[in-house]
Amino acid sequence: LKSTAEVLGGKKYVALFFAGKWCPWCRALEPKLQETYKKVQGLDPNDTEIVLLSCDNDQAAFDEWFGQQPWAAAPYEVAQGENGKAPIGYVRKAKRDAGKPQGTLGEHFKLASVPQLIVLDGATGTVVTDKPMEQAGTKSDQGYNWTDLAPETWLK
Question: pTM higher than 0.85, yes or no?
Answer without folding.
Answer: yes
